[in-house]
Amino acid sequence: MKLTIILATAAYATACTNVSVEGDATYCIEGAICGGNGSACPKQGDWASGDCKAGLFSSKNGWCQAPESAVCLTLKTGARGCVYPSKGPQKMVAGMTAEADQGCTNVSVEGDATYCVNGPVCSGNSGSGACPKKGDWASGDCKSGLFSSNGKWCQAPEDATCQKLKTGAYGCVYPTKGPQKMAAEADQGCTNVSVEGDATYCVNGPVCSGNSGGGACPKQGDWASGDCKTGLFSSKNGWCQAPESATCQKLKTGAWGCVYPSKGPQKMDFNLRG
C-alpha cells in the first residue's frame, strides 16, 4: 500500500514544487507555493513527499498525510510559510485573517502575550494607540496559564484597551483582568488615595487627607490603582472596584481619610463633623 502511494505521488509530482509545513513534513504541490509571491500550501489529505518522521502531526502508521489544510501565513521570522491552523497560531506574526498584511508592530498586553497590530500602537505617553482586538492571535510570548491561552496557543479573549499603568506609561490591558494595575482609566492629573482597610484609588482633584475634611474620595465603580488583595471589600475575581462611594471622614487617628460608609463607621471618630 505504501509503495503504491509513493509511486502515485511521484507520478503526480512531475509539475509540483516541494514546500514544508512548519514543524511538519514536506509536500509537493502545484502552483505558486507559499513564500515570495505565492500562497499555495498542502491541502487536507495530501501525502508528504519528504521529511516524514514518527511523532509529526501528520504522521500515521509510517507515512505522513496532511490532517488539515495548511494556510500561508507570516511567521515570527518575518518569512511566509505554511502552517497547520490548529497547531501553530501562536507562532504567527498577526491574526489569521491578516497574517499576509505588512506593517504590523508588536505590542504586549500587560501580564499576557505579544500581538502584532496595524497602525500606531499604544505605548509611551500616548493613550490613543492601537491594542489587540478580540480574536487576534499572539505573535509571541504565549505561555500556558495566560488569560489568552487555551493550553496550546494564545488568542485575545477580549479587546485590550490603551490605559495608563502604574508605571506612568501607557500600555494595553484586558479590561476584565488588569484595571487594578492602572494608575487611572486614562485620566490625567489624578492622585492616589487609600480607602481605610481597602485598596488605593487614583482620583482627580484635592484628595481627602491630613487635617482637611473636604477632599475627594473614590466613587462607586472606580477601579483600584494599587494594593488590591483577595478578601478586600472591593475585591472580586482578581481585581478591585469600589462597591460604593467612599466618604471623607475623621478617623480614630485624628486624621481625615476615605471610608466606605457601610464598612468603616466603627473605626471613625464619633464626632464625624470634627
Describe the structure in your own words:
The chain has 274 residues and is mainly β. It has three domains: 2-87, no CATH class; 93-177, no CATH class; 187-274, no CATH class. The protein has one helix and 18 strands. It has one helix at 2-12, and strands spanning 17-20, 26-29, 48-50, 59-60, 63-64, 71-74, 80-83, 105-108, 114-117, 161-165, 170-173, 182-184, 191-194, 200-203, 235-236, 239-240, 247-250, 256-259. The strands form eight sheets. It has a three-stranded antiparallel β-sheet with strand order 1-2-3, with helices on one face. Strands 11-10-12 form a three-stranded antiparallel β-sheet, with no helix packed on it. A hairpin with a 4-residue loop joins strand 10 (161-165) and strand 11 (170-173). The chain is elongated, with a radius of gyration of 28 Å. The relative contact order is 0.08. The model is unreliable at 1-13, 89-102, 179-188 and 265-274 (pLDDT under 50).
